[in-house]
Amino acid sequence: MSVRLRVFAGRSSSAGAVAGFAERVRGELVLDLPDDDLGEDLEDCLDFYEWGSKPRCEEIEYLRLVREARDRMSRGW
């Protein structure tokens, strides 16, 4: 029974580590983009983004930062 508990404990702690990493990445993104309202799902931010709603140089930087954060979260590093 103790082996079984260790296996489940390991799973929950790794899931917690992934969630913690995702929150850290999201926190970094919020610091980089303080004026933007970012939702929970970065994929939605990209899907529902309205082209032309920002000056071109800001638009490119915004999309680059959101894509990089999304990719980091999916890779896990």
Structure description:
The protein is mainly α. It has one domain (2-75). It is 74% helix and 0% strand. The chain has three helices and no strands. It has helices at 2-32, 42-47, 56-75. Helix 1 packs antiparallel against helix 3 (56-75). The chain is elongated, with a radius of gyration of 17 Å. The two termini are 33 Å apart.
Structure described in brief:
Helix content is 74%, strand content 0%.
Strand residue content: under 5%
Domains counted in the coordinates: how many?
1
Order of helices and strands: HHH
Structural class: mainly alpha
Q: Quick one: biggest sheet?
A: none
Q: How many helical stretches?
A: 3
Shape: elongated
Would you count the extended β strands for me?
Answer: 0
- Low-confidence segments, given as residue ranges, are 1-10
Question: What is the first-to-last residue Cα distance?
Answer: 33 Å
Mean pLDDT figure: 80
- Nearest-angstrom radius of gyration? 17 Å
Helix content: over 70%
